[in-house]
Amino acid sequence: VGAAAPPLPRSAETPLPGYSPAPDPASIPLTTDGSWVVEEGPVVLRLAPLDDEARREYLRRRAGTDTDPFATRPGAARQGFLTFHLVLVNRSDGTVAYQPLGTWLKTNGNEVQLPLDLTAMETEYRLRESEMPPAYRLAAKALLDGSKLLAPGQRVEGLLVFPSFKKKAKWFEIRVEMIGGTGEPLSYRARYARDSKKKQRPKE
Q1: How many Cα atoms are found within 13 Å in the side-chain-facing hemisphere of 172?
Q2: Are the C-beta atoms of residues 13 and 20 closer than 8 Å to each other?
Q3: Which residues contact 177 (CB under 8 A, 6 or more apart)?
Q4: I need a surface site. Which of 56, 89, 119, 194 has the fewest CB within 10 A?
Q5: pLDDT tens-digit series, residues 5-58
Q6: b/e for 44-54, b at 16 or more Cβ within 10 A?
Q7: Handedness of CA 8, 96, 25, 55 (dihedral sign)
């Protein structure tokens, strides 16, 4: 998205093993590489799930760090975080207002997760009465953090890193909301559904 943009990180088909994209008429169009892309209307949008390798690559390029504090822990039964790369381009004649905390992950069980930002990470460690590791502060340079006011033609990109939901879910979705150039609310949705047991355990 955007002619002068650097190459985007490789996307994964799903941000979470065991779940697959489940597009419907109300969702963002899904492309063959697993990205959700809107090319018409006031905003161009690309939402791409990233696996651990693609996230490390992006952190290295954008934040200048080889340490990924969001990496799946060795031996962990599941991922601790779900990561998406979001690109927005304002195609309208007005200013588009985007707040990353206006994007959220929601499950069918009504569990809601907000994307991490530097303030949230600092608060979490302060509550634990411990010092936040420097790796998180470095990685925060790659996150979409803080309100964004996009002038006509302006582009913004970054990572949305969500804590993984705690309970098993039949489906989860990512909602991206913002205010368009004429004050209209804009809302976009991408949904993932849990794979059937038959799909999870293919016959050999």
Answers
A1: 23
A2: yes
A3: 102, 103, 185, 186, 187, 188
A4: 119
A5: 455 666 777 778 889 999 999 899 999 888 999 999 999 999 999 988 999 999
A6: bbbbbbbbeeb
A7: positive
Question: Cβ(135)–Cβ(65) under 8 Å?
Answer: yes
| pLDDT tens-place string over residues 78-94 | 788 999 999 999 999 99
Structure tokens of 68? 């990924």
105's tokens: 């992950």
Residue 86's identity, in one-letter code, is L
How far is it, in rounded angstroms, from Cα 119 to Cα 125?
A: 10
pTM of the entire structure? 0.88
Q: Where are the beta strands (DSSP E) in 135-200?
A: 148-150, 155-163, 171-179, 185-194
